[in-house]
Amino acid sequence: MAKNKVVFIAGASRGIGLSAAKKFASNGWSVAGFYNQKEGPKVKNISWYHLEISDYSSIKKSFEKAFEDLGRVDCFVNCVGIFGYKSLIEYDEQLLDKVISVNEKGAYLSTKEVLNKMVKGSIVYISSTAAQIGSTDPIYAGTKSAILGLTKSMAKALAPAIRVNCVAPGVTNSDMTKNMRPERLQQLIGMSLLKRIAEPEDIANAIYFLASDEAKHITGVCLDVNAGYVLR
Fold first, then answer.
1. Which of 42, 135, 148, 215 could form a disulfide with 141 if both were Cys (CB 3.0 to 4.6 A apart)?
2. Residue 90: is it exposed, middle or buried by C-beta count within 10 angstroms (0-12/13-18/19+)?
3. Which CATH number fits the domain that encloses residue 25?
4. Residue of 125, 140, 208, 229 marked catalytic
5. Is residue 175 in some structural domain?
6. Is position 93 within any domain?
7. Quick check: pTM over 0.90?
């Protein structure tokens, strides 16, 4: 059990982020769960804070409040992500800016701020199989490719005090998947070796592993959790 350790989780109120928050909390961590639209459920060891991930002033305010309340931060997990569900031709400039701001700019700004408070520990980002093999939504895939580059760059910059890794989920039972065409979803499941969709808990387990001392000799890697959909 990780008593007295603190994790900041952006995008913690639902899906993979909520499963990760519960995983850390059940293992004795104090969790600062950051949400955008709706606060998550009342769970022991989880405190909730509102956050606009693409607004640096919001990040500074929310992280400072969480730091004051919990006293430290040992791990930062960024689970925030949105999907445009469009081809490049279908994207307008407003939606393009929004996806990049949330998925990519938000990761940069939140990391920048958490480093003002984290002395040692770990950072875990969420990338995607879309970054590895492409996607019907090229803007989303591009932002998740940027997360791979950020992971490797920050691993080099922050070693040896802070380990930095990412998880690349495949098709997962989340809000993003619920908005996918049923025939496309079945096609993707059929292309995986395990022939099943991941549950958010499957991804949360990988996040927790990378954050824990079980992975104390791992940094700068992308852990694929995709049922064999992508083999590298």
1. 135
2. exposed
3. 3.40.50.720
4. 140
5. no
6. yes
7. yes
pLDDT at 180: 77
* Number of domains forming the structure of the chain: 1
Element (H, E) at 21: helix 15-26
| Closest alpha carbon to 31 in 81, 76, 64, 79 | 76
| pLDDT tens-digit readout, 135-159 | 999 999 999 999 999 999 999 999 9
- pLDDT at position 206 is 98
**Mean predicted confidence (pLDDT) in 181-202:** 89
Residue 147: name the closest of 227, 221, 232 by CA. 221
Write out pLDDT tens, residues 51-105: 999 999 999 999 999 999 999 999 999 999 999 989 999 999 999 999 999 999 9
Catalytic residue list contains 208: no
